[in-house]
Specification:
heterodimer, A: about 250 residues, alpha/beta, Rossmann fold, 6-stranded mixed β-sheet, 10 strands, about 25% strand, B: about 325 residues, mainly alpha, two-stranded antiparallel sheet, about 75% helix, L-valine transmembrane transporter activity (chain A), Amino acid/amide ABC transporter ATP-binding protein 1, HAAT family (chain A), transport (chain A), AAA+_ATPase (chain A)
Chain lengths: ~250, ~325
């Protein structure tokens, strides 16, 4: 199987600080791939590089065989990349449902004339979009918030809403940045089930996460970062027994 | 779901239409009609500006400039060159659309104060050109504008019309025409807001980075809404010129831009009906306080400040919220 995401020799420097240095790894299609590491290891920077928020100082990123370095996030979205944020990015000036419908932006033809005159073709598309968004909200467990404003939702529900929005784009790969942060035990268990359901649909999942129990339970492969460099890569079993990883996490 | 949404939209339009229809019962002389017509035209301008400021969260302190181009293009072409008013007005709007697109692309990359400064400068340039090119615009003294006409049918405040057997004065005809324009402006604005384009615009305000990762080309959408709001201003500027029959460079001035923005902020950002209320209040206020005319700009500044501090959501949304609170409290009391 060819790699869906292929990263080679990736560097990102902020002033004199190398947040990511000489990083290479690849994610196969259909995997749940997790990136772990201590705080400040460069996990979120890596996500921002892959999704086009940052431009790398050096290195290559291929998505589905195509070089995507320096591409704008909206261009990457067109190529099937979708993500959530550690600092949630929800549009609080919109309803919960509209946030998810926004996720289908690329699936909708937005013609100015049909919009200005509100022609029937637009209404049909909007209705389909709305139905799909409602389905997705139920899928992630936000069913009771369909009529709510985003600003009226709880933290945990907003995290799931952001996943629903990311799924609305029919992505090939979804990057989740610390989806379990701030969730309680029950919510984390629900999240684990949700990630498995997403992967079961054939969507590749890349995960940054601190919750070791969650990560070890669901990942096919893991990448361990420390000070922006690759410390180890492998299956959960290999990572658990890797002496470097143990040293980085437990000190020594 | 979809139906309730559409009903809500329709309800607002119907209420507005009813207000426009019953308002003449309270208006007794041509001056009242003149005021109401001006309010309707300015309100329609502000409805367009609100798309940019309220919904997409981008500031423009130069919108009077676009209003001015529309007004002066119509005035100059119809009076000096005998162009027919309707095609001239549409051509002016297209011209303003192109100008807004060209200036909008680079300046909408700026954020916050820088964007305000850039739009301010655009407005100033337009006002200066209108002021200085006296050979064609009449300069600071202003210029007369022929009345509006379509296919030989002339709409003038001084004419008499018969409509369904009723005699209608010209100023009343203009009032109803302006009311129709306002309804149309609101309808189109609501169509934009409640569409994929509208969602993309609002997401630029809500979270630009979220918008980008779901595939919204934010730069393109910002330019688009800038152009739409500028076209609104140009169209209404042309109508305003034909209605008043005489225009001065003041309509393109910085002060006028501030008045327009204050109407949006006071009435309620991202509230289409709120900004109409804002336009009405700020158009009527100087009439009520005519004795303090020289303090007008200070008053607008004060209103802008006080609204930002005490009522950041604006008049209508704040009133709606209070009403909702009161109703739910009443319900609780009834149940107890």
């Amino acid at each position: 199987m060819s790699a869906l995401i292929d990263v080679k020799g990736l560097d990102k420097a902020f002033g004199g600080v190398n947040a990511v240095e000489g990083l290479s790894f690849s994610v196969d299609a259909g995997q749940i791939y997790s990136v772990i590491g201590p705080n400040g290891a460069g996990k979120t920077t890596l996500f921002n590089l892959i999704t086009g928020i940052y431009t790398p100082t050096k290195g290559e990123i291929h998505l589905n065989g195509e070089s995507v370095v320096g591409m704008e996030p909206n261009k990457l979205a067109e190529r099937g990349m979708s993500r959530t944020f550690q600092q949630m990015q929800i549009c609080m000036n919109m309803t919960a449902l509209e946030n998810v419908m926004l996720g289908r932006h690329l699936q909708l033809k937005s013609n100015l004339l049909t919009t200005l005159l509100r022609l029937p073709s637009l209404l049909k598309d909007e209705e389909d979009c709305r139905d799909h968004a409602i389905e997705l909200m139920k899928f992630v467990g936000c069913g009771e918030y369909i009529e709510s404003d985003a600003s009226a939702m709880s933290y945990g529900a907003l995290k799931r809403l952001e996943i629903a929005r990311a799924l609305a784009a029919d992505p090939k790969v979804i990057l989740l940045d610390e989806p379990a942060a701030g969730l309680n035990g029950t919510e984390t268990a629900a999240l684990e089930a949700l990630i498995k359901k997403i992967a079961a649909q054939g969507i590749t999942v890349v995960l940054v996460e601190h919750d070791m129990k969650l990560v070890m339970g669901i990942s096919n492969r893991l990448l361990v970062l420390n000070y922006g460099r690759k410390l180890a890569e492998g299956t959960p079993e290999e990572i658990r027994n890797n002496p470097d990883v143990i040293a980085a996490y437990l000190g020594g | 779901m979809l139906n309730s949404f559409m009903q809500m939209r329709l309800k607002g339009l119907v209420i507005l239409a009813v207000i426009i229809l019953i308002l003449p019962l309270f208006m007794s002389n041509p001056f009242h009609y003149d005021m109401a017509t001006q309010i309707a035209i300015i309100a329609a301008t502000v409805v367009g500006l609100n798309l940019l400021v309220g919904y997409a969260g981008q500031i423009s302190l130069g919108h009077a400039g676009f209003f001015g181009i529309g007004a002066y293009f119509s005035a100059v072409m119809t009076s000096n060159y005998d162009w027919p008013p309707l095609p001239t007005l549409l051509l002016a709007a297209a011209l303003v659309g192109v100008i807004a697109w060209i200036v909008g692309r680079p300046i909408l990359k700026l954020k916050g104060h820088y964007l305000s400064m850039a739009t301010l400068a655009v407005g100033f340039i337009i006002a200066i050109i209108i002021n200085n090119e006296g050979w064609i615009t009449g300069g600071p003294d202003g210029m007369p504008v022929p009345s509006f006409s379509v296919f030989g049918w002339e709409l003038s405040s001084f004419n008499q019309y018969s409509f369904l057997g009723m005699e209608v004065n010209g100023y009343k005809a203009w009032y109803f025409f302006a009311g129709l324009l306002l309804l149309l402006a609101v309808w189109v604005a609501q169509n934009i807001i409640d569409s994929p384009i509208g969602r993309a615009l609002r997401s630029v305000h809500g979270s630009e980075v979220a918008a980008r990762v779901v595939g919204v080309d934010t730069a393109r959408y910002k330019s688009l809404v800038f152009v739409i709001s500028a076209v609104y201003a140009s169209l209404m500027g042309s109508f305003y010129a034909h209605f008043t029959g005489f225009i001065t460079p003041h309509i393109a001035s910085f002060e006028h831009s501030i008045v327009l923005i204050t109407m949006v902020v006071l009435g309620g950002m991202a509230s289409t009906f709120g900004v109409i209320l804002g336009a009405a209040v700020l158009k009527l206020l100087p009439q009520v306080l005519a004795d303090f005319q020289e303090l007008e700009m200070m008053m607008f500044g004060l209103i802008l400040m006080l609204t930002m501090i005490f009522m950041p959501k604006g008049l209508l949304p704040t009133a709606q919220k209070l009403l909702k609170k009161k109703m739910s409290r009443k319900k609780v009391e009834e149940q107890a």
